[in-house]
């Protein structure tokens, strides 16, 4: 898996892609950070556009072809959801909930893709001063990381590296989710909507839609859920087909990420005959697990959580 820190210069090397022009993108040479985000968005847009217009090789199994077609439809639907949110909220009013997991990683990639063709003039201005400001992408994108109790060092490292590579202005809150969002909205009062990676198989998500305002005593904001209807296999097909680096814990059998005290490799992925009994020297054999993307049953995704 490529190093996350090499994304902008290696994985999304614009010299290797036939890039279409990004609509209304700011090309201000005095703002290298803004230009860097613009080029990153354009590269991702080109990569996703190529995926959506591609045909599978002739020898591709019919089941895999059907999966790829479902992912393409899901991608187009999710991009529409994000573009609608961008038209309703400015980039300063729209934040991303990002913890380095596979689902919010897909949302992040789709968000960057949508930004490439977004017309900032179509979104509401967050202040009167903004109305006199030329259309532009910000230097970085607002995001919030709700840090779990006892976080994995691998997750923290991936969040740090990927947030730098993808130009996130990441605020960290080591607190329960509700109080973390309360603190985030207090610290960033311009935030009115949050992109989240919730999927319908998540606890309590069965009745959600693409847009849901918080209720039940939660701090008030609009939840934008672009991948709510994605299946587990579709998430992994998207990431692997586009060669998006992901947290290395997934390659060790973890399928749903939390903290070190409540997250374990998924027993459904344990390699039979491995890790049982003692080795030749009396030491315990290390259990081995297949990677997360080999899990087939959505309902077993959280079997590694307690």
Q: What does this molecule look like?
A:
The chain is of the alpha/beta class and 306 residues long. The chain is 34% helix and 8% strand. It has a six-stranded mixed beta sheet. The N terminus is likely disordered.
The proportion of residues in beta strands is: 5-15%
For the record, give the distance between the C-alpha atoms at the N and C termini, rounded to a whole number.
Answer: 28 Å
Percent helix: 25-40%
Please provide the count of β strands: 6
Total of helices:
7
- The quaternary organization reads as single chain
Rg to the nearest angstrom?
A: 20 Å
Order of helices and strands: HHHEHEHEHEEEH
Query: What do the pLDDT scores average to?
Result: 84
* Broad shape: globular
Q: Could you say which structural class the secondary elements and strand pairing correspond to?
A: alpha/beta
Largest sheet: 6 strands, mixed
Order of strands, main sheet, comes to 3-2-1-4-6-5
Low-confidence stretches: 1-34, 128-134
Defining traits:
306 residues, 6-stranded mixed β-sheet, 6 strands, disordered N terminus, alpha/beta, single chain
């Amino acid at each position: 898996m490529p190093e996350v820190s090499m994304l902008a210069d290696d994985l999304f090397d614009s010299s290797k892609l036939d890039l279409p022009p990004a609509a209304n993108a700011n090309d201000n040479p005095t703002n290298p950070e803004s230009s860097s985000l613009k080029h990153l968005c354009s590269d991702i847009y080109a990569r996703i556009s190529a995926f959506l217009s591609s045909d599978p090789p002739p020898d591709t199994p019919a089941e895999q072809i059907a999966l790829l077609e479902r992912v393409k439809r899901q991608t187009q639907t999710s991009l529409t959801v994000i573009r609608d949110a961008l038209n309703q909220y400015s980039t300063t009013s729209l934040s991303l909930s990002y913890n380095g997991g596979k689902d919010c990683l897909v949302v992040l990639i789709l968000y960057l893709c949508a930004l490439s063709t977004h017309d900032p003039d179509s979104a509401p201005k967050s202040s009167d001063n903004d109305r006199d400001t030329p259309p532009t992408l910000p230097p970085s994108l607002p995001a919030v990381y709700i840090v779990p109790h006892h976080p994995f060092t691998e997750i923290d490292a991936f969040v740090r590296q990927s947030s730098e590579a993808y130009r996130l202005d990441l605020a960290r809150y080591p607190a329960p989710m509700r109080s973390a969002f309360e603190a985030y909205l207090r610290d960033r009062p311009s935030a009115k909507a949050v992109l989240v990676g919730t999927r319908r198989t998540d606890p309590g998500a069965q009745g959600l839609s693409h847009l849901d305002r918080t209720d039940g005593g939660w701090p008030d904001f609009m939840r934008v859920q672009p991948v709510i209807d994605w299946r587990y296999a579709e998430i992994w097909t998207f990431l692997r087909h586009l060669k998006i680096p992901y947290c290395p814990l997934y390659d060790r059998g973890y399928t749903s990420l939390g903290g070190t005290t409540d997250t374990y490799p998924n027993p459904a992925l344990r390699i039979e005959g491995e890790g049982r009994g003692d080795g030749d020297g009396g030491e315990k054999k290390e259990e081995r697990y297949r990677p997360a993307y080999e899990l087939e049953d959505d309902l077993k995704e959280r079997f590694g959580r307690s």
